[in-house]
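Intended use. Records like the one below are meant for learning the mapping from a protein sequence to its folded structure. Do not use them to infer anything beyond what is encoded.
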Amino acid sequence: MPVLYHAPESRSETIATLVRMLNADIDIREVTIPRQDGSGGPDPDNPHPEKKVPYLVDGDETLRERGAIIVYLTDAYPDAKLGPLPGEAGRGAYLSWLFYYQGVMEPLIILQWAQLSHPALTATLRDVDTMMAHLVEALDPGPYLLGDRFTAADMLCSSPFHWFPDLTPETPAIRNWVARCAERMQP
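Structure written out for the chain above:
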């Protein structure tokens, strides 16, 4: 049986929610991780090379990084319809949003939180305002990133706004989308 290594109230929460929404037969094992406040610590039972979460072990396959785990799981559990499969309409947009989150959104949010800026970062990642405008543009036809279809990309891209509501801009398109996603992800 696949095993998801998870620490509550961490970035792995989105993946634990996805497992539930997929009705996937996956064992979720809680582990400790070092926390920003200095609590916690690396768990010797966590096989992740850096002792982070989430980490998925499925036989000989191991996956880290939320985007990779999301694609793996939504492809493995297609009946839940939480991600377009290869060849289906919207697959490119779906993958683009997952990788945009990890390659642009999360770094920009961390840089803003850390109050770090540099022209090279702005040239590469742009800025938070540009990121928010990109979300609004996608949500304009809405109500989700892929139009009428709620996917795991919505789960991932809305996740920082669930954890840090103060990051959510006053923009109605984003606020309403975050609320719709939260409602969809409730048990």
